[in-house]
Amino acid sequence: MSATFLAEVSLAADPRLIRGVRLLISSLAADRGLSMDEIEDLKLAVQEACVNRLALGLAQDRLRIEISDDQNTLVIAVSGDRPGPGNEDEEAALGLSLAEALVDGVWTEDVGGTERVVLRKSLPPPPVGPAS
Amino acid sequence: MKRLTIETRTDGDVSVLSLRGELDVATAPQFKDALLPLAEAGGLIAVSLETLEFLDSRGIGVLVAATRAARKAGGDVAIAIPSRAQRHSIEVLKLDTFLTLRDDEAQAVAALTGGTR
Fold first, then answer.
1. What is the pTM of this model?
2. What's the ipTM?
């Protein structure tokens, strides 16, 4: 079964704009039934993924965030506009370590020559309606 | 509207910095400019995050750098951090044993002035 597209955002590579991504994540996550604590953790994990791309120099002009629902798992892919490998940045690695502790899965993958960070967060099961 | 507001005052020998808003990659330089000179001068500094809405790893990095600088110069930093989520981030990075964390500003000031630590 293919993933359900939810949103795609393309931003200038400006750290001040990541705040808007956090607001979008917060809204989508609340709509999908995550708790307040889970939403805070997810917002921070996405923040760290975005900062990672900027810090490594992999998003010099644009930062792209794609959000989908893959079999009741929220999947968020964050990429820039430059191929890897990026700059050395100890704090960027620390930020991804933090993200790993906050969601159910974090990894990097190469798609068409561009490395992206992917986050996975399991969603609560959808409510079961009354039997007809 | 400013993303991060920093209010500075003194409580006896302690400089108290109260942060309101968001401490993240975009505002961390502003916080660093306010905090690091006090730390490098060896001051006793309480940082209150009681009205902070968001904290990322770059903000935590400034807290670590300032604590290190203050201790090297004979001072110290204590942080009032009541938010479970924000404290959890610091614990995940295993920095909770290095940073002095307290639940509120009064406890942070006490940690610097010979109270509980």
1. 0.91
2. 0.90
